[in-house]
Design a protein that fits this description.
Helix content: over 70%
Number of helices: 15
CATH class: Mainly Alpha
Strand order of the largest sheet: 1-2
Strand content: under 5%
Shape: globular
Distance between the termini: 42 Å
CATH architecture: Up-down Bundle
Order of helices and strands: HHHHHHHEEHHHHHEEHHH
Amino acid sequence: MTEFWTAALALTILLYVLLDGFDLGVGMLLILMPDERGRRHMLAAIAPVWDGNETWLVLSATVLFGVFPLVYSTLLSAFYLPMMAMLAGLILRGVSFEFREKSRRNRAFWDWCFILGSLVASFIQGMTVGALVKGLPIVDGRYTGSAFSWFSPFAFLCGLGLCLGYALLGAGWLTHKTTQDVQTLAFRLLPRLLGAVLAFLLVIFVYSLTLDLAVMHRWLERPVLFVFPLFGAIVCAAMAFSIQHRRELIPFLCGIAIFAAAFATLAVSFYPYMIPFSVTIAQAAAPQSSQAFIFWGAGIIVLPITVIYTLVVYFVFKGKVTDRESYDDAANSSE
């Protein structure tokens, strides 16, 4: 049962990062589009799916709370302030997305709110991962640091890196879903974003190997683990090729593969720890009876239904949006 919930948690986190990641990226890229028509075009590209993507964040928190309560309580104790800032950013995005469509004189204000909310949420998520990799002050499973012990230059760098990664996903989504000026802008940004993300991943990978001797020994003793970063490097080359030849869908798929490779690399580097190097999966797991109880609701009903719902939404709203339709039109259209 613990293995099932570990896999379920990994799936929900990965799907959140991939799906909400690209619409957060589009939100940050909005700052680079100077005209109203282009901004409406960009927002129309994410209108049918952006709020549904955040469902996976709720599911991840639910699994942590119900199945891995020690991790949930420790992370909330350590990251209470940044988590509140992230939630505020996500709320600000939702409010500004709806308000700008109805506004006539304050659209620039709501645009900046949407950009700021996307940036804050992305940065906090990356900084949280960086703080976990760097290590938290934990004694006997309890967080012993202050309200700002999570902050470090490395965590700050990870926050910036995830913003770049989400922007890469967002640009890939725009090449697939949009046309004309927005698609041209996305193709122009992709090479720069790819180069920045590659540089960031290289720095993070080297740092992770030297962070703890146990991690380095694991990679040296099992060279097969290098298949994940090698796969990522191959996908980056494929993305560069697709950008050069202006393949519309391939950059987005390659972006997904790059994130999946980075996620797998991070997972195998610290497994079986859920909080490196303090709390293992076995230590964090709730009693088997609790896991079994939750399984009959969240495990076999909520999780499959959410997967099906997500697949249906992306199938129904497949196809491109044009610069002539509002994002309300896009959300109500199946074409």
